[in-house]
Amino acid sequence: MDAGANSSADQRTPGPKRRRRTRAWGLLAIAPAAVAVAAALGAGGDSDEALPDSSQRLLASDTAGMADPLPFWGALDCAERSRHRRIATGGDPAPAGDGSPQGDAAFRRLTAVDGDDLWGERCELGLNNAGGPVSFYREGERLVTYASFRLPHDFPLGAKNWQGVLQMKQAQPADNGGGTPVISLGAYQGQWLLFASDPGPTIVDRVVWRAPAEKGAWTRFRIEALYSQDPGQGWVEVRVDLDGDGDSDDEGEGGPRIAVATLKRETAGDPGDGLERGDPVPSHLRVGIYHDERIACPAPAGCSVDVDNVQVLRP
């Protein structure tokens, strides 16, 4: 069955499906001064905490224990269902975010191929709907999101153009539900890159943290945030296990707490979406591969990313 029929990627975006944006994930439209500031932020204090934390309350978890991703994620936004594969062995060996065992060794592989067009070249998990199962992020919530990624040999890590693996994307229906995601994680130019965008409508975002990336190894992320449309209230902090030793206390693995808007702000009052002008727009979680169509991913192999051990917890 063609998963495109159930796509949730951008339900209310008008106009032709294939479009090239000025800057959706990468550095092309970021001013040099902004890049310098982001690099300075990324060099900030390292955490001395291990990644798992048993004091946190588990809200949701996907360790690829089930073959079908839809009960957890709600939607598979890929050109074909076969672009998603559950592989039973070789998954992330780390425990879940609360310290408990995963209970399986499986992981999910998501693949995009040149010419795929689901509101862009992508293969992602996550229902883009404020009432959906992965619409976790709302005004005033403080949550911790864990996710592990492995970049296979066919992943174009050296690409110069934007390429994302995780979005905390403003959810539909909303007048300000399009544009760049308010928080997102990219992998290209040999780096992991965390982006933030302004709460208003925009197709531009900026780097707020970065770290070196490599292929073939599981990399565990912990993204904690206070979710708010107000950049004076919201913040995000990323910790990452770059060397696979189970903690984030090595040099470069812990970023600073960064003051940013972590939700979008509604731009108009539409009776159909239940949001008034100025209301915070809830965000939903998406994982997979989504990138500039100019990045080469020829058939039949395409370009893949491996995803495992996803949790959302309340500290």
Describe the protein in words.
β8 and β9 form a beta hairpin. The radius of gyration is 18 Å and the shape is globular. The N terminus is likely disordered. Strands 1, 3, 4, 6, 11, 12, 13 and 17 form an eight-stranded antiparallel β-sheet that branches. It is 5% helix and 32% strand. With 315 residues, it is mainly beta. It has one domain: Jelly Rolls (Sandwich).
Report the count of strand segments: 17
| CATH domain fold name | Jelly Rolls
Low-confidence stretches: 1-7, 11-48
CATH class designation:
Mainly Beta
Biggest sheet architecture: 8 strands, antiparallel
Estimated helix fraction:
under 10%
Give the end-to-end Cα distance, rounded to a whole number of Å. Answer: 40 Å
| Radius of gyration from the alpha-carbon trace, in angstroms | 18 Å
Mean pLDDT: 87
Strand content: 25-35%
CATH architecture: Sandwich
